[in-house]
Amino acid sequence: MNEIETFIRADRVLADVITYIPPDLMKQSLPTGFPTRDNSTYTYRQMLNYQAYDEAWIPDMMAGRTLDDVGQDVHGGPLDNDLLGTDPSGRFRDLVEKSIASVRELSESELDTRTVHYTYGDYPLREALWHAIVFRTTRAFDYARVIGAGAVLPDDLVESVWAIVEPHAEEWRSIGVFGPAVDIDAQAPLQDRLMAITGRHP
Question: Taking the model in full, what pTM does it have?
Fold first, then answer.
């Protein structure tokens, strides 16, 4: 699997899904059960701002810079900022393209030698990309499902993300990344098994 190309694929899929979120939903609360780390309820706009905040940090994080190097407040806070302005989907896509441009500059030889400094720990670049890929892929599924856009992800992306998640699911579950796995038939479609292993009902 090529982590660089998979990140680009996942980020573009997420951006595509977000373009389908109707503007009149932005102030509404996400449905109960939308996965959040603290199990709180947020509006669509708050959650998209959180996603935009994560996206805005990608160029610096992937370059190996820390929050202190850049300035912790440069993008505001993850929930109380407003990176979306009057054109949420357009502004989000702009951030995605900046992230993609920064990841395209990475080389395969750096994946196991460069360190990425996330707020929750330091990781080799390869593993840092895994985290970013999984976050974007599962969020694309989450948003598509709640807006009724058809939560079917591209097969090539699902296969790549399964290869990342399946060996690490229990490790990541133990630190709160995923909720309890959902029981599912072992012969179910791969996307269903992927979402189930991350704690989502397919």
Answer: 0.95
At residue 81, the pLDDT reads 78
Given a cut of 80, whether residue 80 has pLDDT beyond it is no
Tell me the C-alpha distance between 177 and 67, whole Å. 21
What is the per-residue pLDDT across 166-188, written as a single tens digit (0 to 9) for each? 999 999 999 889 999 999 999 99
Contacts of 120 (CB under 8 A, 6+ apart): none
7 sits in which H/E element? helix 3-18
- CB contact set of 165 (below 8 Å; sequence gap of 6+): 134, 172, 194, 197, 198
Give the Cα separation of 70 and 62 in Å (integer).
13
118 within 8 A of 86, measured Cβ to Cβ: no
Q: What is the DSSP string of 36-75?
A: -TT----BHHHHHHHHHHHHHHHHHHHTT--HHHH-TTTT
SS3 call for 143: helix
Q: Which of 37, 26, 78 is nearest to 179 (CA)?
A: 37
105: Cβ contacts below 8 Å, ≥ 6 apart: none
Q: Does residue 151 carry a pLDDT above 90?
A: no
